[in-house]
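[[Per-residue structure]]
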Amino acid sequence: MPLCVNVDKSQVSKVLEIIRRARILSDEYKITRSGNKVLIPIKVEHVDVVQGLLRDFSIIECNPPRRRSPIRIKMPSLDYIGDVVIVRRNVLDHIDAEDLVYRVRVVYPRVRAIWVKEETCDLYRKPLLRLLWGEEIKEIIVKEHGVLFKVKLGDVYYNSRLAEEHYRVASVVKSGEVVLDAFCGIGGFALHIATLKLSLVIANDLNPTAYELLVENILLNKRRLKGSIVPLNTDTRELPVFLRERSVDRIIADLPHQSLEYIDVYAKLLKPGGVLHLYVLSKMSENVEQEIRRSLDMWYFKECVSVLEYSPGVFVYRCDLVKPKTI
């Protein structure tokens, strides 16, 4: 029996965006109405994922009409942002390039460019991209929960799969907080926070192109902003020169490869009782906890959750910690 998310009409756009980003919308059945509700069919094998993403909505057995010509093309892992598809280099180890282009163009008929991500390189985490098919599109506008972002592909780090994480962290920020986004990129966390909460966000990134895009994205969303964003373009290690000690209520440290190298900065700037959202790479959450406790043994460990799969068997974890009031 098919399963559907039972949604009020006013919530359809929001729920569909989440389901499509998670790639769990059924390709066998149509979305249909039932009175004042809308039934959105999902892939049955991913019901646990849906329950985690959409806790406030009910999942019911349903009988929606079948699609006349369901797409049954097996697709590799990819990112579809704007009119552009980005695939990782290892995908081409398992599928011919011409076949990949065909599959992508059938499933995403509006795609204008297909890029291959060769690697993430240099200090700024910039992806090295190679054009596989289409137009050489490097500049795009993407939307996350109504927030607009200008992205320059190949010049800055951007991952569309972090959209839900940006919104999730922004949702727990309290109005009136001073938040430091220590490695902000183009403003993923900062702009979500400022559109949701009356807070001050200090957004810093070392990459000058990311900083320029951050400023543009602030202007792009200025009518939606409730809070304020102060953009900075400096080495995170230099932040204690600009900011007072114990002046920040919350720090977001989204630099999974190197976030543990800045422990001294977090300790100096965070208020006693303040929250640190620390992003790290690991194969197992238990290993993450052990490594963090060695560096922050006095801090209160709230939780450590998997955010996304970085590579086969390796995950990005967000660990939430509270600075002791005695430090």
